[in-house]
UniProtKB/TrEMBL annotation:
Name of the protein described by the UniProt record: Peptidase A1 domain-containing protein
Signal peptide residues on this chain, from the entry's feature table: 1-30
Organism: Chenopodium quinoa
PROSITE patterns: ASP_PROTEASE (PS00141), PEPTIDASE_A1 (PS51767)
Domain Peptidase A1: 82-479
SUPFAM superfamilies the record matches: Acid proteases
Length: 493
């Protein structure tokens, strides 16, 4: 009897130890390195003007959608954005990584993409095959999150659950109704599913299995064919679901966008996306983060909003309007840090002050290229050869001053883009000249009926920085990095 009890105890201890090990494999995973691929196409854009005009148009549309919609999953397009690869049910998908939305969704079979001509090569789409068994219940918290304005009882009523079953909370067999997401130039309708999601491995990490991962399954979209990985602050975002698996992974993430200046030949390395926190000893270069607090937005809680105090052009400090410094009770104001918008969008008064100061300094030497401005949607632009052959013009420095005295000095390439003019008309005399443009845009005048962020910090201005989203401390940090070197160092470790 004693020997039997001893053997039973040993088996129990062994089982407990095995369980501990299985749980520990989750908790010790404090960092996951993933590659971000820039979606710049070598063939999609016929000229530099075409590419710049396309990204300018999309940036403006995305910012407008930020300011006047309750829920946002926004237009993303090759030429301005970054993709992340996942495996789901043995199928591999590359989707846009987006800090400006809070839902992960994939195209699902049968799939129809309306007005998507030219956005992907014919035959390249392989929609996900899903079964009804993976649909989430109308009673689930995830369903209520996807339909933020409706209670679970209302959702179950929409799902045709009988009244007597609603009254006794017995509608688990009724699926969550489809939900609608609006885009700046399109939209989608999706169902809510749950499956095991596999995140890719690198040389320093194993693949990460996310069991019971909740995602949107879109059968019909308008203008968006490939899917989005939402990294916003909502409960259905990828970081939020990671936090349920491991707080170390879900409470902080960062990315470092390899500087490209719209040159596909320079995109030889992936941009590192780091889930969790790495040790400073793992990188050769250590530059301290400049942190600024996240601002809470009661109406748009999924945004990463920060306060902007001023912008300096050279030695001149231009104060930001009051609405960029804080977010009011109606959810208006602040600056959204967004991986999915290309250019920084500023309210008209601040933008014009920055543009005028830049022109005042550069215009003494360089001539305005007004035709290039109309073709790209950017301004001011200049011919870089100089007046009367004068060369060596100095582009003034530009710095962003965030809340709590947090200042970030941008490298010149992050706000002033130089390129060879490849105008669409080959007979133009300007063809072959070197141009330079300010890579920030006018967001327009504020309108009383609109609500939401006052400005957007785009990914072009984030290049060459590691941007960290510290969800535990509710702050955003910036540190200058050689992003390709950071990828190599972390991948080796």
């Amino acid at each position: 009897m004693s020997m039997s009890m001893s053997m039973a105890s040993s088996k129990l201890l062994l089982a407990c130890f095995s369980l501990f090990l299985s749980l520990s494999t989750v908790s010790v995973t404090s960092q996951q390195l993933l590659p971000l691929t820039h979606s710049l196409s070598k063939t999609q854009f016929s000229s530099a003007h075409h590419l710049l005009k396309s990204t300018a148009t999309i940036s403006a549309a995305r910012h407008r959608r930020h300011t006047n919609r309750k829920r946002v999953s926004l237009p993303l397009s090759p030429g301005s954005d970054y993709t992340l690869t996942f495996t789901l049910k043995s199928q591999t998908f590359s989707v846009y990584m987006d800090t400006g939305s809070d839902m992960v969704w994939f195209p699902c079979s049968p799939f129809e993409c309306i007005l998507c001509e030219g956005k992907y090569p014919p035959g390249s789409l392989s929609p996900l095959n899903v079964s009804k068994s993976s649909l989430l219940s109308c009673k689930s918290h995830a369903c209520s999150s996807a339909h933020s304005s409706l209670s679970s009882s209302n959702l179950c009523a929409i799902a045709k659950c009988p009244l007597d079953e609603i009254e006794i909370s017995d509608c688990s067999n009724f699926s969550c109704p489809s939900f609608y997401y609006a885009y700046g130039d399109g939209s989608l309708i999706a169902e809510l599913h749950s499956e095991t999601l596999l995140m890719p491995s690198t040389s320093n990490s194993k693949p990460l299995n996310l069991k019971n991962f909740t995602f949107g399954c879109a059968h019909s979209t308008l203008g968006e064919p490939i899917g989005v990985a939402g990294f916003g602050r909502g409960s259905l975002s990828l970081p939020a679901q990671l936090a349920n698996l491991s707080p170390d992974l879900g409470n902080q993430f960062s990315y470092c966008l390899v500087s490209h200046s719209f040159d596909s030949t320079k995109l030889r390395h992936p941009s590192p996306l780091i889930l969790g926190k790495y040790k400073e000893t793992e990188i050769d270069q250590v530059s301290e983060y400049v942190y600024t607090p996240m601002l809470e937005n009661p109406k748009h809680p999924y945004f990463y909003s920060v306060g902007l105090e001023a912008i300096s052009v050279g030695s001149r400090r231009i104060e930001a309007p009051e609405n960029l410094r804080r977010v009011d009770r109606q959810g208006n104001g602040g600056v959204v840090v967004d991986s999915g918008t290309t250019y920084t969008m500023l309210p008209s008064k601040l933008y014009k002050a920055v543009a005028v100061e830049l022109e005042r300094r550069i215009g003494k030497v360089l001539k305005r290229a007004t035709e290039t401005e109309s073709m790209t949607g950017l301004r001011p632009c200049f011919y870089m050869h100089g007046r009367k052959g004068r060369l060596g013009v100095v582009i003034p420095s530009l710095a962003l001053h965030f809340g709590r005295n947090s200042s970030v000095v941008l490298p010149r390439r992050n706000y002033f883009h130089e390129f060879m003019d490849g105008g669409d008309d080959k007979k133009k005399k300007s063809k072959g000249r070197k141009m330079g443009c300010l890579m920030m845009m006018d967001a327009g005048e504020e309108e009383e009926e609109e609500s939401g962020p006052g400005a957007t910090l785009g990914n072009y201005q984030q290049q060459g920085f590691e941007v960290v989203y510290d969800l535990a401390e509710r702050r955003v940090g910036f540190a200058r990095r050689e992003c390709a070197t950071l990828w190599n160092n972390l991948n080796q470790h």
